[in-house]
Amino acid sequence: MATPDVIHIVFAITILVIAALNYFLPRLTRRELFFAVTVSHAYREAPGARHTLVRFRAAVCIHAVIAMSLVLVPVPQKLVWLPIVAVYWLLGGCFVAFLKARRETLPHAENQSPEREAGVAPRPPSIFGSWWLQASPFAILAAAAAYLHFYWDEIPERFPVHWGLDGQPNGWAARSFGGVYGPLLIGTFVCLGLAIISYGIQHWTRQVRARGAGTAQESRFRSSQRGVILLTELFLAATVAWTARLALRNQASSGMPDVLPILIGATLLVLFVSGWLFYTGQGGENLSTAGSELSLATGELPDGDRTPDQCWKAGVIYINRKDPAILVEKRFGVGYTLNFGHPLSWALLGSLVLVPLLLAYFFKHLH
Fold it and tell me: Is the distance from CB of 148 to CB of 247 less than 8 angstroms?
């Protein structure tokens, strides 16, 4: 069982990672985007933009200090949920600071380039799209299911699946199809949804630049994003498989299992992914500066990410029914987000969120 000190350390690392990401995110986006607003080539280095950036970063630091104090300051046992509040405080504070910075940037928005580029050649394949790598998370889940089937008779008629903060079990499952295999099936559907998104990054995303150095860096960025998704699938599959084998624990060992390996694994995954996002930048912006320098030298209207400013709600939600792309680059962050104006986006969202929730509800009430 993980001690409270270890859990508090994990929460402290989480807060540091969230604060660091938000602190540097304005410099990780495409160079013609500033707080989700399309601006001129030179605006990001103008005094007004620098002042906006300083105020945003100051707010991030203040909220990080408040969140860290909630995690590290000793509190009574009945307030052990404060670390969770700390994380939400930091996320909410950073988002409010982002909205303020975006409001300051909007008066400096520039007319966007009307040009749109499309590649006629097939996109180069990614190693992370190979069938054997894509099948590996499902192989882990299938192996766990086979293991449980082999030792079915050793599974207790009733076993704990949830524990309170005091370490005592407060949720139970029966030796049934749903009780034993339910977590594995839920994990399978989540991994399937992530695999579909990985496929969509390769085939359903907007081509920002279809010529020059920008094409190569976009391709490398797409591949890196698929690698991040695959790594997440593998970690999720391993975690679910480890959780499912708890059905074999007997009543005498029904105390809260040791979650330290999962916490350490999750922390390492977050640190690695965060470092990789810093390395690539949005759209592969940090992988090569040749495309950006060429764009800067032409003095043309800014390209940004080739999506209309008016279709972004609060700078983070994209709704454009005229855009055939299902996935578009985030304007504040690194990666992709859904085009909620496209019907298939809602199907993808359902595969990731609604289906696992329905399965969890079904298996909970299945006797």
Answer: yes
In eight-state DSSP terms, residue 254 is -
| Three-class secondary structure of residue 279 per DSSP | helix
Do residues 23 and 61 make contact, with C-beta atoms less than 8 angstroms apart? yes
CA 161/CA 341 separation, integer angstroms: 39
Residue type, 78: K
Q: What are phi and psi of 22, to 5 degrees?
A: -65, -35
Q: pLDDT, tens digit, for every residue of 293-338? A: 444 444 455 567 788 889 999 999 999 998 888 999 999 888 899 9
The tokens describing 264, both together, are 């350490």
Size of the chain, expressed as the number of residues it contains: 367
| Helix residue spans in the chain (DSSP H) | 4-24, 47-72, 82-105, 131-150, 177-203, 213-244, 260-280, 290-298, 343-349, 355-364
Structure tokens at 364: 């909970």
Residue 122 tokens read as 């097939």
Strands 336-338, 327-329: pairing kind:
antiparallel
Distance CA 304, CA 43 (A): 13
- Model pTM? 0.80
Task: Provide the 8-state DSSP code for 205.
Answer: B
Rg (CA), the chain: 23
Q: How far is residue 319's CA from residue 312's CA, in Å, rounded to a whole number?
A: 7
- Distance between CA 84 and CA 92 in Å, rounded? 12
Among 131, 295, 96, smallest CA distance to 214 is for 295
Pairing of strands 33-34, 37-38: antiparallel
**CA quadruple 232, 237, 238, 243: dihedral sign:** positive
Highest mean pLDDT among 146-150, 181-185, 262-266, 298-302: 146-150
